[in-house]
Amino acid sequence: MGLLRRLFGPRPLWDWVQVEPTTACNARCLYCPRTVLGDTWEDRFLPLPRFRALLPALARAGHAHLQGWGEPLLHPDFLDMVRLAKAAGVRVGTTTNAMLLSEARIAGLLDAGLDVLAVSLAGVGPENDRVRTGTRAARVLEALDAVAAAKARRGLERPSVHVAYMLLRSGLEEILTLPQVLAGRGVHQVMVSVLDFPLGPGLENEDLAPRDQAEHDALHERLMALSRSGLDADLDICFRLPPPRSDGPECTENPARAAVVSAAGRATACVFQNLPLAGEFPGLPAGVGPRRALDFGDAADQGLDRLWEGEAWSAFRRAFAQGAPPASCAGCRKRQ
Predict the structure, then answer these.
(1) Which end of the chain has less Cβ packing within 10 Å, N or C?
(2) pTM
């Protein structure tokens, strides 16, 4: 029924909806706001009944991605969330650090019908383990092999396996080995990103966001060469590289066609505007993230679609469409 709806039904209301199962995590990545803002960070879990309340709205999305600031597989009801979303007729994905991808959990994800499984890396060896504390690149690669083997045993095409790769300045050499390391491991696509949120100590030296057009063009050509080399390993290597200056008319979070629901059940346009903090929204350096918290209401209680069509969220989208995003978005690198 979900396939028929996507083929012949009306266009979904959203290209995707991102639902955050939890803000808790078993890793402490150096570049993650959860690590940097640790004393004020709250570990939250979206209750399953509140997730169920989102299902009528999720049925109107092209894709539901169950991931946020935390490690989604820590949620005790994660597999139920996947099954419920699939039963609603929506394509479902998640992003994980892969440390909890045991054989049993992989089998559970296949049973639940997960469509997209993305794993996070910031290197393929010691570089990853240094910056993604609590994770191990070798364990991620083992998990990729285990997923490929489990799919082969069952004759399954899904889930499509992706890699979300964070490229830091110290990892410029190691990333060149990526096609060889991932070849034959069942990975369909790699998305390479640079830091959107360089908050941690020492990250100013790791930040690869280009400072001028010459630096942008040099890094762009390097990443294009990597993308071309990926073709030999049947890897689709894409990258997201911000221009020397942000504050452009577009945003990678797709505010005109996408929505986010936090682990607290709040509806917003972007995970960066809804950090799970016990205190005030942090004062951020220029060019780092949004200026203030922003949400549009309780998605479970009020209805995500009703909030989307309400005046506050509609005004937010109109501002983007008119090239004048709200002050909460000023200077954010997501805008390009």
Answers:
(1) N
(2) 0.90
